[in-house]
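Reviewers of the previous submission asked for a worked example of the structure-prediction workflow described in the proposal, so we include one complete record here. The input consisted solely of the amino acid sequence. No template or homolog information was supplied to the procedure at any stage.
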Amino acid sequence: MIKHLHDNNLLTGLIWEPVETNGNSKNYQQWLNKLRKTQSQLVYTTNNGGLLKGYSEKKFADLEPFAIYVKNEFGDGVYYIRGHEEDDEIYFLIITDDRILSGSDRVVRRCFFDTIILQMKEGEYSHLQINELSQQWLEKIAEKCRQKRINTQKKKRLFALGVVLAGTILLITVIFLLNMMLE
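From that input alone, the workflow returned the following structure tokens.
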């Protein structure tokens, strides 16, 4: 399932900037500043109008961030996708207070995921519901992504056609005016 996301240009593994970064160590601040300069940046808006950022080494031109789709569709919670049975990997995402939690949106080993879930049941995120994302929902998101890509391509073609048409009209007008001036 995780490969299916990547095959449909859905991007996972972003580094989501925490809400508060002021209380962190100097090394963390330096790392975050380097990240801001060297990685592609995605800004998303929360329901209350706050702007939050995610970073990836991949360019966002043809990719859609999967975590944003989950946030917009389901809201707060812990979401995961199991790989094939022979796979020891699980994709997980944590959304709380309409924010993607820094450190989630990752593929991790099954034992690490199980440990996180056990600790969460007793921690500050115990109120979040744990949900496995179904194959049907993943197909729905992949289709939305494909449709968005098709619409974007249509808009690009329409824009290029408009530029060519405007250039042609401008060229004909200039030729017509020059022809009138020469006569």
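The two ends are 71 Å apart (CA to CA). We consider this example representative of the routine output the project will generate in years two and three.
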